[in-house]
Specification:
With about 190 residues, the protein is mostly beta strands. It has a single domain (about 5-10, about 30-175), classed as Jelly Rolls. The protein has helices at about 5-10, 165-170, 175-180, and strands at about 30-35, 45, 55, 60-65, 70-80, 85-90, 95-100, 110-115, 120-125, 130-135, 140-150, 155-160, 185.
């Protein structure tokens, strides 16, 4: 049975409020913005089915249940009229994750929301700098959001890594050591 979108039940993509770049850092969030690099080994392309929801701001794709110890990359683009892509996924047990947004052709930002459409993490570096978030997610449904800054069209690669792959993708040092001034936690 296909997964049912939370969006079709009680919300739409306009319910996802994206913060401005002046949002203060909350160091108590489970998601940290980091200077994460995708693991160079075992990153497989993630093939997307048709979107489960489309409106005037963008598309929502269902990634299903994300396994532990996996890594994959989504290659996609945003156009001027499609300024937000959302990726819904489910976590069945507490797992470390890293999310990296790179290979940008224009400025874009990375967000993660919980199943209540509450923003729990954001990375909003400037220009073509890669965006990254990492942390532990407990069981539940989440949404990753990729948003173009100022509505500019951009290509992007979104790398999703979990378990051992997530841990191997983070550089040396603690999350606090890797924190970027342009990134913030909610």
């Amino acid at each position: 049975m296909p997964n049912q979108s939370l969006l079709t039940n009680n919300s739409n993509s306009s319910d996802f409020e994206l913060p401005d770049r002046s949002t203060p850092v909350d160091r108590n969030s489970p998601i940290d913005p980091t200077e994460t690099t995708a693991p160079s080994n075992a990153t497989n392309p993630i093939e997307l089915d048709d979107p489960i929801y489309v409106d005037d701001t963008g598309e929502t794709y269902d990634l299903g249940i994300l396994d532990t110890d996996a890594s994959g990359v989504i290659t996609q683009d945003l156009s001027g009229s499609d300024s937000l892509d959302l990726y819904q996924f489910t976590v069945e047990e507490s797992t470390d994750f890293s999310f990296t947004l790179d290979n940008l052709s224009a400025d874009a930002d990375l967000y993660i929301f919980d199943e209540n459409v509450e923003l729990i993490g954001t990375s909003d570096n400037y220009d073509l700098d890669a965006e990254a978030l990492e942390g532990n997610l407990t069981d539940g449904t989440y949404f990753l959001g990729v948003s173009s800054f100022d509505g500019e069209a951009t290509d992007y690669d979104l790398t999703i890594s979990s378990g051992e792959f997530a841990l191997s993708s983070v550089g040396a040092g603690s999350s606090a050591d890797l924190m970027s001034q342009e990134s913030s936690l909610i």
